[in-house]
Structure formats: C-alpha cells, structure tokens
Amino acid sequence: MTKGLYVHIPFCRTRCHYCHFVRLEDPSPALRSRYLEALLKEILHAREIYGALEFETLYLGGGTPSILRPDELREILETLTANFKISEKAEISCEWNPGDGDPEMLSKPRGIRINRISLGVQSFDDNLLRTLGRRHSVRDTIETLEKIRGAGIANISLDLMLRIPGQTAEIFRDSLSQCIALKVSQVSLYDLEVHDDTEFGKMLGRGELSLPPEASHGEMYSDAIDSLAAAGYDHYEISNFAIPGFASRHNLIYWRNQEYLGLGPGSFSYLNGVRYQFARDVPRYLEKCEAGIWTNDVEDLLSPRDRATETFVTALRLKEGVRENIVSHLSPELPGRISELCKEGLLEISAGNLRLTRRGQFLCEDVFRFLLRKTQGAADPAG
Ligand code: SF4
Q1: Using one digit for the tens of pLDDT, what is the confidence trace for 243-268?
Q2: Nearest atom (ligand 1) to Cα of 134
Q3: Residue 276: inside a domain
Q4: Where is average pLDDT lowest: 134-138, 195-199, 345-349, 350-354?
C-alpha cells in the first residue's frame, strides 16, 4: 500500500493571530539542535519498530520548515534515507513562508531533493496580511516565488485563506487573479478558523473581531471554483485545484485513507489499522524522546467497518466521489443518512458515483459530521 511520510518542523519566528498549530516561537540554535536530536531518535525508533518502510511521498510541514538551515535539512533527509526507502520518484514537499528560506536548501549536493513547495501566501493584500499577523508582504511572495523557480522547482502550490476579517469578495477575487497570473501548479483554499487560544480567539471573546458574512464567504468559494476552472485548474478535492498532473500526491494519501507515518510533535500516524499521536506538543515530545518513552499520547485501533466508513467519507472529498454500491457494506445508518443529504441537495448521484454538490462542498464539515455522528443526538445536516 502507498505510504506517506510527514515530518513536523515546529519553529516559527513569530505567532500569527490565528495560529493553533503545534509550534514554538523560539527558533534559537540551542532549541533547534535539541529538537533535531529528538527527531533523529524518533526516526531510529520508527525504523526499529517498522523496519525500512517504503514511502512514495515525504512532506515537511510546520511550523516553518523553511526556517531550517541547509545543513539541518540535509541531516534530516540523510537520516530518513538511511533508515527508510524513499522512492526515487517520490514527491518531496516542503512548506515555505514567503520571505524566508535559504535557496541552498533546494539544491542537491547529494541524496534526495525537495521537488515541491507549498507556499503560505494566504492573501495578496498587504492589509489583510497585517490583520493575520503574517510577517511577509505581497512583495516577499513574488520575490520568494522567483527564487524557488530560480532553484529549478516548478511544482509550487499556493495557500489562499478565506474568511479573513475585513476580506470582501472583491479583495478575494483580486488575490485569486494574482494567483492565477503567477501560473502556480496548485491552489489550496483554507477557511480561517478561530480558536480560543489564539489572538483572534481573544479578540472574538472581547467582541473585537468581525468575520465576513456567510453569504460573502460562499461567494468567495464559488468564485474560486469558477475562476480556477476557467484557468485550467482541476478541482480535484473540495479545497484544492491543480493543473492536471500536479495534484498533491501526499494529500491524496490522506484522502484515500492510505497509510502514513508522522514524525514530530502533534503528528498523527496511521499504520496497520491504528491511528496514533506520539506526543501532543513540543515540550512533551522532547521529554519523551530524550527519556526513550515510546508510548503514544493518543491511540485508536480502528475496526474493519470503522476503516471502511472513514475511507468512504474521506473519498467524498475527491472530485470522483465514491461508487454508490459500496454504501451497503458500511455502517447500517449510512444509506438513510445519504438519502437525507441527497434530498437536502448536499449529495448527488451521477453515473453510479456519489458526490458532494457544490453546496455540499461548501458545507462539507456539516455533511461529514452528520455521516459520522453516533446514532443518537443528530443535528440537521443543513442546519
Ligand atoms: S507560520 Fe504557520 S505555524 Fe507559524 S505561527 Fe504562522 S500560522 Fe502558525
């Protein structure tokens, strides 16, 4: 089975106002070298448990992997290739923040090389970038993109955010046009989520944060679908649009519910029917790796039926949807729930495949919650 490898690099220079990810704002050399040592120990431990696993994709996420020095990145990649089999044709992705990063990281002195960049652009409007607490400007985005291309990397994905305070459908359309003009290979959309433990969460609690209205949010999503399709992008997943041949192979592993190993704090793994998280945050991760405590913080053993149901639900994220005739093999509640969702106009059946409608894509989190809910206490799917 195809396997993906995720490695978390939890350092950031500052904290964005919406950030809820596992990360530290201390990229000091001392902490980085302590972290790298812990990560190398975890790699060796995974090798001991699973043997030399074979991977088709490697994804360096964060935090900010582009904060690494070339020698630090080299050490991580060399340790991974010494302990696992990473296919020669593997997709090697790295999240990159505009304005960051030493292009030398993208060169190939020896061994494997990053061949895909996911650039955290979020918006092409400097005011909105300031609102988000991002460190970069639109100019940084353009210059970084040129540097990445100059290093020979053509496969570049851009993240754009929706629901930013102060964002209008017009501002979003402008970001979209700039994105399309840059001819990147993929565009990923994200909705801003406000969590209590973030700057935005505190502002919301004080009544100081106002998000774009739902109608404007829906208009932005719909505009993105139409403009990106017109520009030749394939809407292959709810929030992802790629030039044909450039869909993210790593994320497809998640959406097809295939196996992956996640290394670093906060990362989840899914291997041999078990989904687990080794350590929930950075201090705990360092402590556990240094003491050699290899128990997991979270561990779920999935039954064959749970796995099949999850596979069904995650596959609904994809353009092709799911063969309708597999539904009867899943949990007994699903056929009734699917009929309800079809009646609500959130799901549709086309050529024997069950798929989300455009409205269903926009309300996908409600749809998935409804499909996966426990039998009692259900809410209306469109509610
Ligand atoms: S760069 Fe990403 S991980 Fe770092 S603070 Fe901003 S949102 Fe969080």
Answers
A1: 999 999 999 999 999 999 999 999 99
A2: 6
A3: no
A4: 350-354
Calculate what percentage of the chain has a pLDDT beyond 70: 96
Residue 100 sits in the same domain as residue 202: yes
CA of 16 to the centre of ligand 1 (A): 6
Same domain, 316 and 247: no
Ligand 1 centre distance from Cα of residue 265 (Å): 15
Instruction: Look at residue 296 and tell me if it is in a domain.
Output: no
Q: What is the CATH number of the domain that holds 220?
A: 3.20.20.70
Nearest Cα residue to 297 out of 284, 282, 279 = 279
Task: Give the residue, by CA position, lying nearest to ligand 1 atom 6.
Answer: 16
**199-245 residue pLDDT tens:** 999 999 999 999 999 999 999 999 999 999 999 999 999 999 999 99
Could you tell me the pLDDT band of residue 383, with boundaries at 50, 70 and 90?
Answer: very low
- Report how far ligand 1's centroid is from the alpha carbon of 380 (Å): 34
Specify whether 95 is located in the same domain as 199. Answer: yes
- What is the number of the ligand 1 atom nearest to the C-alpha of 63? 3
Number of domains in the chain: 2
- Could you report the per-residue pLDDT of 158-197, keeping only the tens digit for each? 999 999 999 999 999 999 999 999 999 999 999 999 999 9
97 within ligand 1 shell (Cβ under 6 A): yes
Ligand 1, closest atom to CA 25?
5
C-alpha of residue 161 to centroid of ligand 1, in Å: 13
Q: Which residue has the tokens 């020698």?
A: 71
Q: Which token pair is 379?
A: 């809410």
The closest-lying atom of ligand 1 relative to the alpha carbon of residue 15 is: 5
Domain-ending residue, one of 232, 254, 276: 254
Same domain, 246 and 340: no
